[in-house]
């Protein structure tokens, strides 16, 4: 069995041209990203003790493993953990999350959990993009979110 890299090298050499090394970059992401910037979906910073959310920013892209949010809050640093509330509309007949608290599974549109910030990138003088992993999402919710996002446009 030949690898993709070996096959690409063979195709190049079969054409009697000087051999060119083709570098194929492996995808590091475990989950497909969906571009949600145009939908204007907002995220709340969640205070679980008071069961209240405060506006945090707008979703730029989302995957079953993480999210990138554009915000005007400048005090965010990598390695911070932020409690978020995501509320997503039903799309193509699919709800993004599952409520498993009752006797039967029910669809739901919101998720509350922790974002482990991995990157903060300045966009302009007033806004930053905050990217990180959704760390405490249940496997059932992650699977439904993945299905939900499979119908969305891909992110660049």
- The value of Rg in angstroms is 20 Å
Unreliable stretches covering 5 or more consecutive residues: none
Give the overall form: globular
* First-last Cα distance: 32 Å
What structural class should be given to the helix and strand makeup? mainly beta
How many helices? The count is 2
Main sheet specs: 6 strands, antiparallel, barrel
Percent helix, as a range, is: 10-25%
Element order, helices and strands? HEEEEEEEEEH
Strand order of the largest sheet: 2-3-4-9-8-5
What portion of the residues fall into strands of 2 or more residues? 35-45%
Total beta strand runs: 9
**Average pLDDT:** 84
Describe the structure.
This protein has 156 residues and is mainly beta. The chain has helices at residues 4-14, 139-150, and strands at residues 34-35, 42-47, 52-62, 66-71, 81-87, 97-99, 106-108, 110-122, 128-134. The strands form two sheets. It has a six-stranded antiparallel β-barrel with strand order 2-3-4-9-8-5. Strand 2 (42-47) and strand 3 form a beta hairpin. It is globular, with a radius of gyration of 20 Å. The two termini are 32 Å apart.
Offer a few descriptive terms.
156 residues, mainly beta, six-stranded antiparallel beta barrel, two-stranded antiparallel ribbon, 15% helix, globular
What is the element layout, followed by pairings?
Blueprint (H helix, E strand, L loop, with lengths): L3 H11 L19 E2 L6 E6 L4 E11 L3 E6 L9 E7 L9 E3 L6 E3 L1 E13 L5 E7 L4 H12 L6
Antiparallel strand pairs: 1-3, 2-3, 2-5, 3-4, 4-9, 5-8, 6-7, 8-9
Concise synopsis of the structure shown:
The protein is mainly beta and 156 residues long.
